[in-house]
Write the structure tokens for this entry.
Amino acid sequence: MHTWHWQTWEGLPYLTCNLLEPWQHGFFTQQYSPRPPHELVPVLQPTAEVYRVKQVHGNTVLATGVAGKSPDLMDADGLVTEAANQAVWVCSADCTPVLIADATTGQVAALHAGWRGTAAKIVPLAIAHLQTQGSHLKDLRIALGPAIAGSVYQVGVEVAVKLGATLVSASSPEAMLEALYRLPDSPIAADPEPNRVRLDVRRVIALQLEGLGIEVEQVAIAPHCTYQQPEHFFSYRRDGKKQVQWSGIVSSNRQ
């Protein structure tokens, strides 16, 4: 069982996960707003180079060498490091911040995985990118940070069907929903409103990872909901405001 720990910096809380302990990392709370990554990186590693992108709810994953450190941010929703001491960052409110680390190469990735990016398989694509850099699936450690919980995330059936298509095949939307309900620890649940369901995006990501052959022990899911914990997290679904918290991780040189 993976554990998540509250840490503090200058009296402010942020989260870490024991699965990623060898790497400096953090899932930051709203208390750090509006500080951008270059003001947060001292919490992790003051000398690390900072990389971020302009998030667009897609599935593009860039290497740090391509993204660069220019103030003109490139459109993407994921970053993969190429050298040691590189800090990659993503911001989120209800979407899932995903931090990935390779126990052998020391390289890391940071991804912004909302329902659109998850439907477009951003996490499997990032892992494929890491594999082109020499990563092996057995060496990956993957933490899915605070996001809106499935129990409170109401979506249209069509959204559930789009995500379901990344997990199972079905001949119709109705058949897709039936197949999703049959999955172990189903990522969807019934909703009282017609043509609506409750959707657990982090569970969908976990099932995508299982489909790649990644072991359950390699994945940690934060027991925190952005929607239900207003004392710690911004939530667009709850407040309707474009406010975000940052998550970041620093690569190491382990080869």
